[in-house]
Amino acid sequence: SMIEDDRRCGYRPCVGMVLVYSKRVLLVRDPPRRSEWDVPQGGIEDGQTEVEAAIQEVTQELGQEWVACLGRIMYIGRGQREFPFVRDGHWYCGKTYYYHALVLAHLPPTFSVGDNVRAQSGHVLPPAREFRELVFTTNAEARSLIHRRADNKAAMLARMFDSLRADNLIC
């Protein structure tokens, strides 16, 4: 599989989740530790499928109530970042991201406007488990929030957003 090929080539396979609701995408951050806007993401463990990893990460990072809101999950694309790092005693030359769109059928009952959450588009969420700030945003708003990144992640995310826009899943 491509995941096993990535591992053999020294890349840590990860899944990136582009959560979509009402034609908008969810961006998250947790300053000061994670000051850049991004999509929820996490590693794919040995023996785990991309979808299993996506659901596990949504549960860990956002909470179980988000999993109950999922309507459909679809693969969007793949991207790589090259940067050496050590994890669990192993050296990796970078990460490979397998991006999936997780289309929400509805929002969790915890949906509310929180004063400490940045409002970009009217869809504002309370703080989640691992993030202080969450926002549902349009493609254009998302691009303006991620373009400041110093790595190639902004270009990867822009490609994923373009794919979703082409499929009329986001505006």
Task: Describe the structure in your own words.
The protein is α+β, with helices and mostly antiparallel strands and 171 residues long. It has 5 helices and 7 strands, in the order αββββααβββαα. Strands 1, 2, 3, 4, 5, 6 and 7 form a 7-stranded mixed beta sheet that branches. It is globular, with a radius of gyration of 15 Å. Residues 113-124 have low confidence and may be disordered.
Order of helices and strands: HEEEEHHEEEHH
Q: N-to-C terminal Cα separation, in Å?
A: 33 Å
Q: How many H/I helices?
A: 5
What does the largest sheet look like?
A: 7 strands, mixed
Strand content: 35-45%
- What is the radius of gyration? 15 Å
**SS-based structural class?**
alpha+beta
| CA-based shape | globular
| Strands, total number | 7
Low-confidence sequence ranges: 113-124
Helix content: 25-40%
Query: Kindly state the mean pLDDT as a whole number?
Result: 84
Please provide a brief summary of the model.
The protein has helices spanning about 1-10, 50-60, 65, 140-145, 155-165; strands at about 10-20, 25-30, 35-40, 40-45, 70-85, 90-105, 135. The protein has about 170 residues and is of the alpha+beta class.
